[in-house]
Amino acid sequence: MCQSVEERNLDPFIVDVDDILEVVREYFPEWESPDELCLDAEAIERLASVIGLQSSWVKHQSTSLYTDPFLLEDKIRRLGKEELAALFLKAWRPIVELEQLSPHSLAGAVSYWRNLLPTNERWLKRASQKTDLGATTRKELVKQRILAEKAFSEELQTFWEELKQSVKGGEKIRYWDFIGAETFAETMKRAYMTSFLITYGYATLEIHRLEEEVFIKPFKKPRNIVGSKQLVSIPVSISIEEWMKWKRGELD
Questions:
Q1: pLDDT(201) > 80
Q2: Which is higher by pLDDT, 204 or 250?
Q3: Residue 174 — φ and ψ, nearest 5°?
Q4: What is the pLDDT of residues 75-125, one digit of tens each?
Q5: Which residues contact 69 (CB under 8 A, 6 or more apart)?
Q6: What is the domain extent for residue 7?
Q7: How far is CA 179 from each of CA 63, 162, 163, rounded to the nearest angstrom?
Q8: How many domains does the chain have?
């Protein structure tokens, strides 16, 4: 497990360091052969490496003022009603609007009523205009955006197939390498469709917190995850600045 953490395949915080040290401390007096002692030494060395990775992650996130959403959720659940109310009052910034009559608004009102036509003229019945009936085509309706060119489910299925082809025999692809397009508008659309792929169980996100990397991993078959468990919302920054960095090859 520690080796997998060092290779960035697992989250370093899933390793219970105290529990493993307790096991090593319990059985250490029984070892006699050098091989057994070397195994214990290797275990301690691996644990030290894991602790170093945990420390690096904490330092990095603390300098960027990052707070893990799960830690926030746990902290909120532990707070009492009075503490939550006090925090809400500290952060509350009500919007106040003051409306009052002024000479300018009075002048505007007078001008409006002076220029307003009498009621008998405003309520004149206008004769309805007759138009000839005609026919249209689906192509014309799509052009006028009355109908969609493809059903959403069909478009989502096509996008899923594109994701599976983009993986090229692997298991995952970088998030920006998949959603990135020639224009920012097209990039936003691809990010929008990707969010539905993840929500409807066509794919999942794989996040490496230490490296701050996000990957998309498509499933071979859609998984019905909606309603089966509580879903966690994962915000991903999609800004014009991030897109320009990706275009220049500066986005890791």
A1: yes
A2: 204
A3: -60, 140
A4: 888 888 898 899 888 888 777 766 778 888 888 889 988 888 887 777 766
A5: 232
A6: 2-63
A7: 29, 11, 10
A8: 2
27 occurs within a structural domain: yes
The answer to whether 187 and 238 have CB atoms below 8 angstroms apart is yes
**CATH code assigned at 215:** 1.10.10.580
pLDDT surpasses 50 at 1: yes
162 falls within a domain: yes
- Domain edge (last residue) among 44, 63, 82: 63
Question: Is residue 99 in a domain?
Answer: no
Rounded to two decimals, the pTM is 0.42
Residue found under tokens 């090593």 = 24
> Which H or E run includes 213?
strand 213-218
Residue 70 has pLDDT above 50, yes or no: yes
Query: In terms of Cα–Cα distance, which of 166, 169, 168 is closest to 158?
Result: 166
Confidence of residue 230 (pLDDT cuts 50, 70, 90): very low
Q: Which residue has the tokens 């219970």?
A: 16
The H or E element that residue 207 is part of is strand 203-208
Could you tell me the CA-to-CA distances from 39 to 19, 27, 42 in Å, in that order?
17, 12, 5
Question: Which DSSP string do the residues of 27-74 spell out, in sequence order?
Answer: HGGG--SHHHHHHHHHHHHHHHHHHHHHHHHHHHHHHTT---HHHHHH
Give a yes or no: residue 86 inside a domain: no
Helices and strands: H and E segment counts in the chain: 12, 3
Rounded Cα gap, residues 58 and 104, in angstroms: 58
3-state helix, strand, coil in the chain (%, to 5): 55, 5, 35
Cβ within 8 Å of residue 52, ≥6 positions away:
none
**Residue where one domain finishes, among candidates 63, 87, 112:** 63
Quote the tokens at residue 236.
């991903």
